[in-house]
Structure formats: C-alpha cells, structure tokens
Amino acid sequence: YSVEYLRVAYEEIRKADPAARVMGVSTTEDKGGDMASYLGKCLALGAGAHLDEVSFHPYWSSLDTSTPTAMASRRNMLADLRKAGCAAGLWNGENYYPFADWSIYSGERRARDFAPDAIARLVLIDLGEGLSGSTPLYLPSLLVCPERPYQYWAVDDAHMQPGVNYAVHSACGR
Q: Please, are residues 116 and 80 in contact by the beta-carbon 8 Å criterion?
C-alpha cells in the first residue's frame, strides 16, 4: 500500500507545485528493521519513479563506530538506488541516537548523553557521504536549561538556551 500511496501523493504534489521535492519510503532500523531490504522492496514495486528523496532512519548504523558503519549503510543504500535506476537523493530523517550502540539505552532518548564529538561525526558523515540532507537532532539534545540541568525535557521552553551541542551541530551543518 505504501508505494501506491506514494504514487498518488507524488502526482498530487506535482500538480500543486511542479518544483516541489517529494520524499518517501522512510526506511528504518528501528525495532530491528532492515533498511536496505525494505528500500529494495519499495524500489522493486516502482517507488523510485515517485520520489526525489529517500528518507531513512538509522539507529544501529548512526556513527562510524557502529556495526554496520554509517558510511557503509549510506553507501549501500545509494548503490541500491542507482542499481534500480533511481536518481533520488538520500535524506537522513532521524538523528536521534548518535551512539555507537544505542541499544544499551533501552531506546530512551537521553539528550544529556549525546556527546558533542558524536554529533559532529554524525553530521559530517552525512555530508561526506553525499546525502541530500540530514534532519537536525531533536531540540533537547541541542538546548540546555540551566535551572534544570538534569531534566530530560524542559517544561518551559523560555528557559532553554543553546548548549555546546547546538554550537557543534551548527558548525558542522550546512
């Protein structure tokens, strides 16, 4: 169903704005998902004709020290796109887990544990591998609340301030 939905959405978006970029597939490694396998199935069903960008959500392969590495994962997906005759770009749509092994966190989003060097590596890997885009990390990983330094999510956004991770992300981003 998702490829048919993508086809219809692509056609309607193109009618409304022929210059719009259409993103689809949204393959993921979450819950043990196999990004390459799902992407391959979607491409075999014709998804490549109905998108400009392929969105993916890496978890297990978010860094250069991950298994598989972020570089290998991105290169394999780009190669699969080209083998299928698809000119779409690749877009990292979820940068929530810049850990070599995020499974030790039991799926918790622990913004305070996002090391600045890991954030830099994640963004630079996406740039270096030629991705079309990379979605920023979510807000609590980039901002801090001085009044509540150990709080996962600040209740009052007015107290949030850019932290070191914000500076690193901004310096590395495009």
A: no
73: which strand partners?
Answer: none
Please tell me the distance from the alpha carbon of residue 52 to that of residue 88, in angstroms, as a whole number: 5
Question: 164 pLDDT band (50/70/90 cuts)?
Answer: confident
Q: With CA atoms as reference, report the closest residue to 134 among 105, 174, 76.
A: 174
Two structure tokens written together for 112: 């305070």
Token pair belonging to 73? 């994962």
CB 2 within 8 A of CB 43: no
Q: The tokens of 95 are what? A: 């940068």
> Structure pTM?
0.81
From the number of C-beta atoms within 10 Å of its C-beta (0-12, 13-18, 19+), residue 69 rates as middle
Compute φ and ψ for 87, nearest 5 degrees. Answer: -90, 5
Q: 63, 99 in Cβ contact below 8 A?
A: yes
